[in-house]
Amino acid sequence: KYGKSLTLVGNAVDPTALLVISHGFGDTAEGWRSPANRLAKALPHLLIYLPNAPMQATTVSGGAVMSAWFDIYEFADPRNPTKERRADVEGTLTSARYVSHMAGHVAHKHKIPTNRIIFGGFSQGAAISIAAGLTAPFLAGGVMSLSGYFAADAEVAKVINKEATRLPFLMCHGRQDPVVGFQLAEMSREQLKAVGISNLEFKEYQMEHSTCMPEMRDIVAWLKKTVV
Q1: Is 45 a catalytic residue?
Q2: 129 part of the active site
Q3: Catalytic residue at 177?
């Protein structure tokens, strides 16, 4: 069901930390190879794993088959971005389990302790990184959400690994994001605090649903202090 390729970037010889970057809705692991290469150059001790979402029919695309970590029943209303929407709870938790399982497998193969795994992702992939970090059967090293949100928060909160509330979180978001509105990111930040996350950095940028160099610099700085 999930993409079979195991895309690894960076130090595959003697890495001391693992960063997972889950791509966004409709994208693939290859879409993040170039940013991953830039991060690997800045952080030579890092191995980066780029998983692929499954191909599945998605409601918002009229049933068309595309890469998606979970189904999206409706896009956020730009006039009311924080309006509650029906969430694909099963899809979210299934993909979170897959990503955490594969991250554990890659870490074990390369002799990386699980507490030096960072779950990261962009957009829908960021939603998976949050769910994976909170529900993994091991205590990871941190969670990095880029232009993302806390999907199925109420249901994920029921199965949180309580130790995971100690994890450092980095949330980066563009103020002009037309896809995952900035208000939704702010609401997600408060939802994470509500489940017990206290070590959370929230960074905002003058950008849309994308990445930018100031964000990349902040990511490198956060990773350096989180998995030195």
Answers
A1: no
A2: no
A3: yes
